[in-house]
Amino acid sequence: MTSKLSVSFIFLGVFICHAAPPVVSDVSLADQIPDLVQTDPKGKFARGGKSFCGPVAASNSLVWLKTGKKSDDFNFQYSVVNKLASAEYMKVDPVDGIGAKGLIRGVSRYVEKDIGDSDFVLKYQGWRSTPKEHFTGVRDPQIKWIQGFVGMRKTAWINLGWYSYDAEKDEYVRVGGHWVTVVGYGVDEKGKPNERMIVIHDPSPRTGADPNDYVLLSDIKTGTLLRKNGSRYRSASGLLKMGGGMHIKSSADVALIDGVVGLDLK
Questions:
Q1: CB 257 within 8 A of CB 242
Q2: How far is CA 79 from CA 85, 95, 204, in A?
Q3: Which tens digits make up the pLDDT trace of 68-116?
Q4: Tell me: the pLDDT tens digits for 194-229?
Q5: φ, ψ of residue 141 in degrees (nearest 5)
Q6: Out of 78, 90, 118, 228, which could bridge 102 as a Cys pair, Cβ 3.0 to 4.6 Å?
């Protein structure tokens, strides 16, 4: 015969077994990784840094990985940015900036020549063009994959697309792109656990003085991505929208993740 007490323990055991697992988070490096502004006049960047989001976002991580600490030596980071933007590294277009191919090329060269590490992995998830040897085969970037590149010897950069959105037609027209640095995940700005949160450093001056932007990622279920001329890119289904604390460019309605470059120094 089962007593009331033993029944209680049975139900308690069932409850414990089916309890939701805790949300894993890591924001330990968010305040240590630099957050340089791409239009900082002291950097003397070409065209005032308007197209320098790629090398600036990459420099945030690379300065941290090279020094292992937060540095107040902004002159050093300025030099890293200008080196990354050069023809030998990313070859940044003065108007259009760079895509994943250029960022990967520049980061790879910097890690080998300037950090002195030849044992590293550079991988890409996304739908825009990138070298085959770095492509994972995944066209729709995944949250867990992005979060997996937060760590002492890891980093990730998001290539987001700026889109205007027509709700009646459910169409997203791409009006530009931008690079940001992933520095943490798993909690919102109040420290509340949320598995769909990432923390970024955005090189744009529109983000203000607070270095950490807490961005909520949500799934796009329907719609179509279009070029400015109206031709079709692809279905929007499966992509991630960057909401919450994301600072949206004034000429756009939404930010979608077009691709992600992940670096692991092993």
A1: yes
A2: 10, 20, 19
A3: 877 777 899 999 999 999 999 999 998 899 999 999 999 999 999 999 9
A4: 999 999 999 999 987 778 999 999 999 999 999 999
A5: -55, 140
A6: 90
